[in-house]
Design a protein that fits this description.
heterodimer, A: 320 residues, mainly alpha, B: 311 residues, MetI-like fold, 13 helices
Chain lengths: 320, 311
């Protein structure tokens, strides 16, 4: 951003110059714009760092849950029921059946994360293909995809998801599909708008002149140019997928085996909230830490990509 | 204008019809026998047959669909298995509670989120804005059921100042509203910040400022005037989504709305009730979206319905 930021920057700038009345400030609009850009870069870097740390704090223990020296997630011991955190070697305490809460959260997290990652892969692939085809070929393909995107807006979404899970059983494939179904329009809409911009560039015309097939042009030349930007949204969708999965499991429509996932652990702990605060609070904090981390990371990466691409593409994307 | 409205209404009716038909097909495709869910576990085959005949479940699928569509036009959505009453009446009796919660949540969200977004846009690229931004991201990252239980624990159990669940007095509205509001505030304020940021950067604002128009007027009249369409669209879409039942929050607070109703209907495989819920909420959602579209020319005189909307 160059001249466009002069407006708001001027507003704060006039306050600074008020300190030395009578003398015009040596700070020009250009300096202000440059300092704003530096601050933006700094905040993007901070977001990426904090986000990565948050994600790593959750993902690493979850991935290594089987190697950590903690009791199994289903090892009951009724004499050790609802021990508060940090007692008897139980970092997160124990639940109503004397199972180690940390172990349950980590093992449940493996299922939650798997579902989340699978869901965004499925929705990412569907969204990319549908969006790219709609943007590149136009015509009836675009009409069909756009109508589908519109139709999904008016669907009562969570209701439909619950319905499908209730009818077809809460297995991991069904839940993955359901979350992917909820999320593909987001990817498709963005990919379509990116491809619309890309399609008009000279290299596409050149490919055409060289006699390349249109599908080849799309796959080999156009898609690689949009995949990076589209993949940033997919990261933000991971946060939503984790939240959606936890909401479904809270309502009893989450994966049932082999371990209770995060939403279910919280739903079970809810009955003991008056006496054992940690049963709900700690698993919830783990979800929040992960989702905040993913959101910050995605946000920071997007800020950085936007800066590199410059304000021009940003304007085009938001308009389309 | 008239033609555009007619076209939009036609689209809306089609959307409702598609939604309801999808639900009809989904419900019939699924494994599991509703007659078995309805009857006692000890029912004999003859009894199950009688129940199927009573609810028309023994007829071919096409014929069931025909009957379903015919009934739809008569406003007859069947009898709820579990309530033994007209499914439509059951849903309509729950609807006011969901609408009440949705209205109060969207008002709360708008009142907090719009000034917050404007504040963030005015302090763009400062440490303060970064802090506010992170707080909003945190609000967006909390599962609603968790923040609901946390609020409930603090304000109804530890410091019992508010009722924990159900709707017995207006105070019961507070905790569900705040729970729903947290997420909405986070989403809407960040949108407002983006739109206002673009508004503040626009050349016409520099011109207006140079002509001595006070900052307050610049913010609310000029920058906000140009951000009104996307902000209102977001508020409307969020509101429409809430009418589908704020399912999770309703379950947490035992709120007597359609959200908690639908969870129960799904557990008992109460087909007519599920269909009636989807129909009623789909109609409301589509109506709200239609209304939003029609307000665009009021918010932005440059919009001509049916022409410039798509640009």
């Amino acid at each position: 951003m160059t001249a466009t930021t002069v407006g708001p920057a001027d507003g704060s700038g006039s306050r600074d110059t008020a300190a030395s009345p009578g003398r015009p400030s040596a700070v020009t609009a250009k300096d202000l714009a440059r300092s704003a850009a530096v601050r933006r870069r700094k905040s993007a870097r901070l977001k990426i760092w904090v986000g990565s740390v948050g994600v790593a704090l959750v993902v690493l223990p979850v991935a290594l849950a089987n190697l950590l020296p903690i009791p199994g997630p289903d090892e009951q011991s009724l004499s050790l029921r609802r021990l508060p955190p940090l007692t008897g070697g139980h970092l997160f305490g124990t639940d109503q059946l004397g199972r180690d809460l940390l172990s349950r959260v980590l093992h449940g997290g493996q299922v939650s994360l798997t579902v989340g990652v699978l869901a965004i892969i499925v929705s990412g692939v569907i969204g990319l293909i549908a969006g790219a085809a709609a943007g590149f070929f136009g015509g009836w393909v675009d009409t069909v995809v756009s109508r589908l995107l519109e139709a999904q807006l008016s669907l009562p979404l969570l209701l439909m998801l619950l319905l499908v899970v209730a009818l077809f059983g809460p297995s991991i494939p069904v839940i993955t599909f359901v979350i992917a179904f909820a999320q593909w329009p987001e990817v498709a809409r963005l990919t379509r708008s990116l491809v619309l911009v890309e399609r008009e560039k000279p290299y596409v015309a050149a490919a055409r002149v060289l006699g390349l097939h249109r599908v080849t042009t799309l796959l080999r030349h156009v898609l690689p140019n949009v995949v990076k930007q589209a993949s940033l949204v997919i990261l933000l969708l991971l946060a939503q997928a984790v939240l959606l999965e936890s909401a479904l499991s809270y309502l009893g429509a989450g994966p049932q085996r082999p371990f209770a996932t995060w939403g279910r652990i919280i739903a079970d702990g809810q009955d003991y909230i008056t006496t054992s605060w940690w049963l709900v609070t700690l698993p919830g904090l783990v979800i929040v830490l992960l989702v905040v981390g993913v959101n910050l990371l995605g946000d920071g990466l997007r800020d950085r990509a936007r800066r590199r691409k410059g304000p021009q593409t940003e304007g085009k994307v938001s308009r389309a | 204008m008239v033609r555009y409205v007619a076209q939009r209404v036609g689209q809306s009716i089609l959307a409702i019809f598609l939604t309801v038909s999808t639900v009809f097909v989904l419900v019939r495709l699924a494994p599991g026998d509703p007659a078995a869910a309805y009857a006692s576990p000890l029912a004999t085959t003859a009894e199950l047959d009688r129940i199927r005949a009573q609810f028309g479940l023994d007829k071919p699928l096409i014929q069931q669909y025909g009957i379903f569509v015919q009934d739809l036009f008569h406003g007859n959505l069947g009898t709820s298995f579990s309530f033994q009453a007209s499914a439509l009446d059951v849903v309509l009796s729950r609807m006011p509670y969901t609408i009440m919660l949705a209205v109060s949540a969207i008002l709360f969200a708008a009142v907090v989120a719009i000034p917050a977004g404007v504040w963030m846009a005015r302090h763009a690229d400062t440490a303060r804005e970064l802090g506010a931004n992170v707080a909003m991201i945190a609000g967006q990252s909390m599962p609603e059921f968790w923040s609901g239980i946390m609020l409930l624990t603090v304000f109804a159990v530890l410091v019992p100042v508010l009722p924990a669940s159900g709707f017995t007095s207006w105070a019961g509205l507070v905790l569900p509203t705040v729970t729903v509001g947290i997420l909405q505030i986070a989403l809407i304020s960040r949108l407002v910040r983006r739109e206002m940021g673009a508004g503040f950067a626009a050349p016409y604002l520099t011109i207006a400022r140079s002509r001595g128009i006070p900052e307050r007027g610049l913010t609310w009249r000029y920058a906000m005037g140009n951000s009104a369409v996307p902000v209102v669209t977001a508020l409307g879409t969020r509101f429409a989504a809430m009418l589908n039942g704020v399912v999770v929050v309703e379950v947490v607070f035992a709120w007597p709305g359609v959200g908690s109703l639908v969870v129960r209907a799904l557990e008992t495989r109460d087909y007519p009730l599920i269909q009636a819920t989807v129909l009623v909420t789909a109609v409301l959602t589509v109506l709200v979206q239609l209304l939003i579209d029609l307000t665009y020319p009021l918010l932005d005189p440059r919009v001509r319905l049916g022409k410039a909307v798509a640009s």
